[in-house]
Amino acid sequence: MQPACGMVCLYLSGPASATGQTPILLVHSVNASASAFEVAPLYDHYRQTRPTYAVDLPGFGLSDRSDRAYTIRLMTDALLAALAHIRSLHGGVAVDLLAVSLSAEYAARAACEAPDAVRRLALVSPTGFSRAKRHYGAPGSSRGIAWLRRLVSNPAWSLGLFNALTRPAVIRYFLERTWGSKKIDEALWRYDMLTTRQPGAKHAPLYFLSAYLFAADINTLYEKLACPVWVSMAARGDFTDYRGRSTVDKRANWQFHLIDGGALPYFEDLPAFIAKSDSFWAA
């Protein structure tokens, strides 16, 4: 696709005949080495039975990695464009949407802005629920730190900084923190090393590092969601703090499940993850 937000890579697959099956869109997390490979196990599973799509967000994977401002608006517009394109291919039906970690914030915003486009929303290890602090900032605002953005983007050292953060040993270190274990997925580690060495790979991660891709109004968005929402919470690793769920966990459209594993549990035990998520999609 080539929407206003630039060229966005959208992968698609599915059975030859999937009449009546709701399409699903899978969205990877955001980090220094992010790509659609992070949802590969889910993509391979769902494409056997239903129209399945995965997206490389702007600045990642095979999507446009040009030197521009990477913002919450840009990421959300990419998802809205992907949803519109998928619906155009499937008679305008609402799409099931699954997003991982920080991309959960863009998925929530897209679902609030285009409620007819999203049937059900699954969030895997989403951001915005940690600690007691809430974020009810101005609509569309970010938590960006201007001085940090200026520092990390300095041409004198920005590439060196990015290369240091994406050395093989460093990527492995962060994956182990994501897993909460040293038993990471080796194929993902190898792909991360490849994707971080592509032209323009540094641009989006530098905005991530300076917090410009984190929403300052995320609690407003989560509380505004009207579609059914399922949350997979990690049992170990760096993404286990969900003290902030109290604003939504009593709402009828929200479900929270503790999944045994790290922040990407479907890499560790796909059948167990699917057993819980499929009951949500089928409800």
Outline the structure in words.
The chain starts with 8 loop residues before the first strand and ends with a helix. The protein has helices spanning 40-46, 72-89, 103-113, 146-152, 158-165, 168-179, 186-195, 203-209, 218-224, 270-282; strands spanning 9-13, 24-27, 52-56, 95-100, 118-124, 229-234, 254-259. The chain contains 10 helices and 7 strands. The chain has one domain (9-282): 3-Layer(aba) Sandwich (Rossmann fold), CATH 3.40.50.1820. The chain is α/β, with parallel strands linked by helices. The chain is globular.
CATH architecture tag? 3-Layer(aba) Sandwich
Order of helices and strands: EEHEHEHEHHHHHHEEH
* Overall form: globular
Helix content: 25-40%
Integer-rounded radius of gyration: 18 Å
- CATH class placement: Alpha Beta
**Intertermini distance:** 31 Å
Proportion in β-strands: 5-15%
Mean pLDDT: 95
| Number of extended strands | 7
Tell me about the biggest sheet? 7 strands, mixed
Multimeric organization: single chain
If helices are DSSP runs of H or I spanning 4 or more residues, what is the number of helices?
10
Structural class: alpha/beta
Q: Concise description?
A:
The protein has ten helices and seven strands.
Mind sketching the topology for me?
Layout: E1 9-13, E2 24-27, H1 40-46, E3 52-56, H2 72-89, E4 95-100, H3 103-113, E5 118-124, H4 146-152, H5 158-165, H6 168-179, H7 186-195, H8 203-209, H9 218-224, E6 229-234, E7 254-259, H10 270-282
